Amino acid sequence: MSPFTEELWKTVEDVYEAILEHPFLRELTTGELSMEAFKRYIIQDALYLSRFSRAVALVAVKAPSDEDALTLLKNAEGALSVERVSLHEFLMSEWGVTRQQLYENVMTPVNRAYTDFLIATAYEGSFQLGLAAVLPCFWVYLEVGRTLLRRGSPNKTYQRWIDTYASEEYAKAVEEVIRIMEGVSKGMSVGEKLEAKRLFRTSTIYEYLFWDEAYRMGGWPLPISRL
């Protein structure tokens, strides 16, 4: 019998291929991606991580053991700090965007829907199901980073983004989270495994939509606030 995490990944192979072929990532590697679209993506990603970290915390509270809870929190924090410190804070500084200016931005429809889905799943579901929902955020970026590293980018900013997710530090943290998922899957029923696959696939599709919305410069059709 194949490892459960291997089964999880097989359920999203088509989505992952679509992600790699998306013009956002293809143009990121050729250097043709507009900086405006990239900035919009980074700002939304920073807003996303603020809510994503809360979803991870909700999942960790339900861990079957203190060891799993601490390992999840430690490695999730490790992966997120790589993104925040090595990438987001550096780019925000380069662009002259303050933390206050960052949080003046409104979450886009996909960003809001994705994070609402993660928080609701983490709150309502079991540890195993919550973990299956948050796992793609870690795992998809690791695989994208590794693949894009082979392609490279002539744009130094885009290459820094690639290097962040292809780094050994990021990989170690993500692989620990995958290991936890594999470990807790041993006690899951057939029905729970099917639901975990559905959640894993849903989150992976949201990852695709996140890049797609940034590339299209998508947003709300009407102002969220008129204040």
Q: What descriptors fit this protein?
A:
Heme Oxygenase, Chain A, globular, mainly alpha
Structure description:
It comes from Caldiarchaeum subterraneum. This protein has a single domain (4-216), classed as Heme Oxygenase, Chain A, CATH 1.20.910.10. The protein is mainly alpha-helical. 80% of the residues lie in helices and 0% in strands. The protein has helices at 4-10, 13-21, 23-30, 35-61, 66-95, 99-102, 109-124, 127-151, 156-166, 168-184, 190-216. The protein has eleven helices and no strands.
SS field, number of helical segments: 11
Tally of domains: 1
CATH topology category name: Heme Oxygenase, Chain A
CATH homologous superfamily heading: Heme oxygenase-like
What is the molecular shape? Answer: globular
Low-confidence stretches: none
Structural class: mainly alpha
Give average pLDDT, whole number: 93
How would a crystallographer describe the biggest sheet? none
What Rg, in angstroms, do the CA atoms define? 17 Å
**Strand content range:** under 5%
What is the element string, with H for helices and E for strands?
HHHHHHHHHHH
Assign a percent range to the helix content. Answer: over 70%
CATH class: Mainly Alpha
Number of strands: 0
User: End-to-end span in angstroms?
Assistant: 58 Å
Question: Which architecture name does CATH use?
Answer: Up-down Bundle
